């Protein structure tokens, strides 16, 4: 399986996927940390987190897959939501909580 197929499989198999630096318990950058905090505050009780620091092939190819150059990258229902700034904006507006709620009810 190619790395692009692996990425596609992750985002299609799991309703919420966060490609981040580090883990939710031990984020390795401030942007990843704030994104995890926003997801948790929005009610995401569980989500798939992939540490791109331990997955160099994913780190190198995800920007090509998503057409998004930076990390973290949040996907919900297979769709790229965005990075830290967009996730925080969605959280502040209440939209992230709605999106997470829909995923958890599905």
From TrEMBL:
One annotated GO molecular function: disulfide oxidoreductase activity
Span of domain Glutaredoxin: 16-81
Binding-site positions, [2Fe-2S] cluster: 29
Keyword set, alphabetical order: 2Fe-2S, Iron, Iron-sulfur, Metal-binding, Redox-active center
SUPFAM superfamilies: Thioredoxin-like
Keyword match Transmembrane: no
Entry keyword annotation includes Ribosomal protein: no
Residues that bind glutathione: 21, 59, 71, 84-85
InterPro entries: Glutaredoxin, GRX_PICOT-like, Monothiol_GRX, Monothiol_GRX-rel, Thioredoxin-like_sf
PANTHER family documented for this protein: GLUTAREDOXIN FAMILY MEMBER, MONOTHIOL GLUTAREDOXIN-S14, CHLOROPLASTIC
UniProt family annotation: Belongs to the glutaredoxin family. Monothiol subfamily.
NCBIfam families membership: Grx4 family monothiol glutaredoxin
Name of the protein in its database record: Glutaredoxin
Organism: Luteimonas aestuarii
Encoding gene, per UniProt annotation: grxD
